[in-house]
Queue: 2 jobs
Job 1
Amino acid sequence: MENLSNSIKDLTKGVSLAVDTAAWMGNSISRRINGRRHGVCAVCNNLQPYNHEETFGNAVSSWKQISDPERAARKLELGVIPTLVLEKVSTKKILESREINPQTNLPKNDCKYCRLLCDIFDAYFIDKWMSWITETKNAMPIQVGLMIKEGQPLIVNCWNFTYDKWFQNPRVDLELYMDPMPLAPIPGAPTMGPVGPRATDSRSKECTTFIKESIEECCRYHPGCTKDPSDFVPTRLIFLGEGKDALRLCDGIPSGQGVSWAALSHCWGGGKPLSLKKATLDKLKEHIEFSELPATFQDAVTISQEIGMAYVWIDSLCIVQDDKTDWEKEAARMGAVYSQAFIVISGASSPNPSTPYLRPRGDDWLPKRFDFPISPGVTIPIMARQRSLLAAPLDQGLLEPPFTGSWATLKKVGPLYGRGWCFQESFLAPRILNFAPGAIIYECKTYRKSEDQLPPYPITAPGTLGEVTPMEQWHMIVKSYTSRQLTFTGDKLPAIAGAATIMPQIQTSKYLAGLWSETLLLDLLWQVMPGRAHTPLMTKEHEENAPTWSWASMNWGVTWNSLKAAELLATVVDAQTTVVGANPYGQVSGGTVTLRGRLKYCRLSANYHKNQHWVYYKKPDGSYSKKQHFRTDGALVPGTVPGQTETIACRSRLTVSGSAMETSAAFFCIAKGPWLKYDHVGLILGRSPKSPGYMERVGSISNVPKDWYDVGEETTVTIV
């Protein structure tokens, strides 16, 4: 009877999905037919949220409901206010609004709304380095997204309009609005809402008022931001005294004194700011000369004194920089320094210590005006400005707690957000003042607000989360962290150690070079993000600081596929790492993982010019299996095995790119995924050139057919 009931439910759900899909397709066809008749652009929908099949609240196609049911449900929920999100709009189609059809002598796409976008792109994305027009004509992968919602500024997502050496698919968000905003919508104008004022100088009275009011409101009305009492006090703090002439370094402050401090998060930027050394310890304990501090430190002192703090913690002045033992000890305590601070000051707009973040805003962050024709001879002024925070989809950033997709993927704007050390400094902060290039952004455990934002403010409280497992949380942390860069490869694990120490896994699991023993098999399935398959991502320095099975061996970002319903097909026999120094969550010099499971030796084919990487095996009848694509761990080279003529894959440690090759490798199956046919996942292994007899990881693979597992040999492998 229960089976019959379930069958009826499945049938009913299937019918409902089919009906919704039919309605969605009907809306799409109707829009295209009626749009031509009424002059509604099929590309930009006249920058309006109405009468589009993707308008929130409409029926959603079945494949979207199946692939992302939470997103589909959220779109229905938000449909109370007319909202439209177009995530992939072709710049080629937008540019056709300027191109003349020689047969008709009219624009190929006669849309004034698309021409407005062209004018805005001209103002922001044409310089001596790049032109969005040239990139479009050269068929480069640039695209536009639109977030249109009544009562909100119109958001234009600009993907790949700028170049970022490290960050894949860089994005700039622009917001369109009117100033002043009319009391009623203007017929023919894009759908836009008001924005908050943005000061032209972060030293202004308006900015100071914003900072003080945000902190006061948080302390008074945010119970979720109240910290539990702690006896922790940093080893050293800078005493701020009664003014800038009374600064000095304090150490050995007794715990239990209710000591409160601000902590600075900043870019070293290759510079050498004033630092604490063994020889200067006594001098700095007597007095710190304010004028000798670099600009970012001076700003931290100024802000701390302005908000009434008695102490500030700055890494280069509170850790002895020429004492390795002191550095290791203090690096292990850094998580507590930032998580127990009253507030963290983030100098996000400063690329180095000599560049202040209390300064006038750059021209790029000031609004630009565009005259838009709403009728013959009549124009209205439309303003555009860069957003200091990238907008989250669906609700334009009104819901962004930790461990949501947008939290893990959207990069904040500013030099600091590209630095590895600064990830955990902001992640651990109970409150943080971000001095971003375009605005001051205050963030706490309750909400995030920007000086140029109007309420309601984005919620950051973890209580708004769905069910996100500790493993998934850690994977998101690592994904966000590894998209940033470090000056020293040896810092790869120490720079995230503070975040590791507050994870739930710490109570039940052993930490293994950035992975956790209780979820080790699934943790091993990390994948290198696209973009550097031809580049050696494991240098000799990385090899000395992490085993190949750890994501910390990569000089690039990593991610994981979702494997919530995975069936594990391997077991962990042993896992060890060699920790360097006093911090158990810090640097390692190597490690081994021994696994028991199915191994299938195979052939590996790599063509770096075409960005293709394949594995396949020879069947008993002499034929070959179908080639399976895998995600390589960067450039690979054929290695030799003593006593054998056949080569086998290994990672390239050189500084030159890889070349096309055919060699041997091995597929080790770890789990069976939730997919239908190509459902096995695992690692691609080669031989270690450093440790004879052991294997090393050279890639990861998913969507592998079952026959690879069936013909595999049950064995034990050790990966270094």
Note: The chain has 18 helices and 32 strands.
Job 2
Amino acid sequence: MRKKSEKCLQLTLVAAVLLAALFYFWSPGSSKEVDIGPRQDTPIINLLTIKTGDATNGYDIPYHVKEEVRSHLAHNACVCKPDEGSFHIPLSNLLFPRVSAHNFAQAFLEHHPDPESIKHHRAQEYSNFKRRSYSPADALIVAEANTPLQYPIQGVEVQPLKTIIIPGLGLKEETRSDHMVSLTATIGTFDVAATVDMVSIQGVGEKHMVLSSSLLSALNRQLQFVTYTNTVFHPKTADTIQFATKDHQSFFTIKVGHRTNPNLYNSGYQGEYNITALVTIATKTFLRYDKLKDLIDSIRQYYPTVTIVIADDNEHPQPVTGPHIEHYIMPFAKGWFAGRNLAVSQVTTKYVLWVDDDFIFTENTKLENMVDILEKTTLDMVGGAVREVTGYTATYRHTISVDEGGDEGDCLHVRLGYHHVIKGFPNCVVADGVINFFMARTDKVQQVGFDPRFSRQGHLEFFINALGFLHIGSCSDIIVSHASKIKLPWTKTKTEKAYEKFRYLNSNENNIFNEALYFKNRFKCMTSQ
């Protein structure tokens, strides 16, 4: 009797452990909910703005504008003017090419049926772009004069070969007979946009400039007009500036680079999401035209006018026709990632939805929900869930991290799970890898790209390349069905057998996987679940 009781107790403990493990791996995870909406001003940023204003104002001392410097500063009022030719002779345009100007607003809006609506839509898209691309690291922060030098520690940027006023420079020290500061640059020169009486300036237009005055307030007033001009062209770099007195020195950086130009999509301003204008569905097919037909038929049941882009690397392609279908033929067996690259490269809408050719849309395949979360958060991609014929629904959520590993390379870690729940979307979480059914911002996916060397299998490789670049989410309530893969061996067709031959990895593909992660990504090892 006692042995039976002990056996029951052991079975109960084992069952409890298994239940705990199942709960750990399959439960929604941490209940922590995080707001990933576009960043707004915070109390800290507002405080920094006030302090920056205090640092650069308050000196009621007259100054004299240097027009030759002022004219090079940005005034947020750019114009496009053509050269005005003073004379015309044969071939004058070849001998003396003139600058021309083209007014996009006039050329586009004058033929648009509703110019005010398109202007509003453009402004709204640009506002969203700025909110999404904002980073706290871009905010101007001025280190107050504790050294006693005051200077900006971040947030100062200049376009290549352009000029800016350096904000936040100041000196706070005890009154003495002479006050002096110096500035030293590496790939730029200094000047002043205005001069202040009783201030001596040496090194104007050079990499090293010295300012001195017997009146501290006059020197601080002059520091408000110090300009920096980048002199060495580089599309993205930085200049380290030394700011010093006789006894103290400090350093700060000025970012040098072109601004990020917005990539806006004119999908038409409407109160509701226009899926046809916002989304293109992309897929790749190989030896499965029957499955592809079922996918297209299911899409058309719910989204009759959405464009479907198909990449096809069959040896003997069959025509795939119909309204809003683009069918692109590739070299035979070119491969999985090459097909993804081709399909995504042809997408012109704001979002691209990737589906496998054996998926089937149902009433639970709500593309509007995917668009909604992408529009309202900072996510670049959102994955859904795939329901198998057995009734099991998979989301394939993984976190990916990299540990530094020294000369031998770094360590890649892939784990089941996610980071946190998304505020306002209780069925959605943030992860680093999602299932092979996702909607993403077209331009961001195009920038990451798909390594065409992965011809038969590839999924994790894309998300490794996207790590640190794409902000990714996963929603369990947006579901696509998966066509049945259950086949008895003797019922498989010749085409199905051929597909299996190409589908699964061979030794060469394994070598490509190892080479890519070892050499291209510089990993020495990987741990995964």
Note: The CA atoms of residues 319 and 443 lie 29 Å apart.
